[in-house]
Amino acid sequence: MAHVLLVEDDPAIAQPLARALARAEHRVTLVEDGPTALDRALAGGFDVMVLDLGLPGMDGLEVCRGIRREDARLPILVLTARTQEIDVVMGLRAGADDYVTKPFRPRELMARVDALVRRTSSAVVPRTLRVQDVVIHIDARKVYRNTDEISLSRMEFDLLYALMNEAGTTVTRERLMREVWRTHWFGSSKTLDMHVSWLRRKLGDSATDSRYITTVRGVGLRFEQDEPTPDA
Ligand code: CA
Prior knowledge:
- The chain is α/β, with parallel strands linked by helices.
- The chain has helices at about 10-25, 35-45, 60-70, 85-90, 105-120, 155-165, 175-180, 190-205, and strands spanning about 5, 25-30, 50, 75-80, 100, 130, 135, 140-145, 150, 170, 215, 220-225.
- The radius of gyration is 20 Å and the shape is elongated.
- It has two domains: about 5-120, Response regulator (Rossmann fold, 3-Layer(aba) Sandwich); about 130-225, Orthogonal Bundle (Arc Repressor Mutant, subunit A).
- It is built from eight helices and twelve strands.
- Bound molecules: calcium ion.
- Calcium ion binds near residues 9, 10, 52, 54 and 55.
- Calcium ion (CA) binds next to loops.
C-alpha cells in the first residue's frame, strides 16, 4: 500500500483512476490544480505522485520543477497527452521519474506506480530474492539464473516475483490475476497461461517435467523451493 498524490483536473480521468488505485489498496489524495499539488507534495507524506501536465493555476511541468528544487526523492509519474514534451518531462529540466501517455489503460498506470513505489521503498523490502539458482534483484528488476541474466518483460517479471516471493506454496490463479494483472476477472485466464509458458521457456523449464514452476491443476502455480530429486 502506498499513499498516492493524484493530480488531475479532469474528473473523467481522475475518478476512475482514484477508484482503481483504491481497489489496489493504495491510499489516494486527489488534487485538481497546480499550486495545491505543489503545496501538498512539499508538505510530504506521499510515496508517489501521479501528475497531469495540463492543470489550472500552474502547469504540471512547473509543479514538477518546483518539487525537484526542494525534494529529490518523491517519485513522480507524469500523465501526458503532449508526446512532444516527454523529453522535457523526463530530462533534467523537470525531473519526472516516468510517464504514461494519454489515453492509457489503468492496468499500465498501476504497474508503473507499483514499480516506482517498489524502487523507492527498497530500504524496507529485501533487495534480492533467491530460490534454487534463480536470483531476482528487486530494485533493478533484473533476474539471473546462475550468473546468466534472463531478460523478462514487465509482466513476466511481476509474475516471477509473485511466485518466488512465496516459493514452496501454491499461489492461486485468482491471486496472480489480481496481484500481477490487477484484475478481479475469474474467467479463463489465458494471458496468465501465456506468461507462464514464456517464463518457463526463458528459465529453461518444462511444463511436463518442471524444475521451477509447477502447475497445480485447478488451483494455481507454485515456484518450487528445492530442486527436484532425481528419480530413483
Ligand atoms: Ca488536465
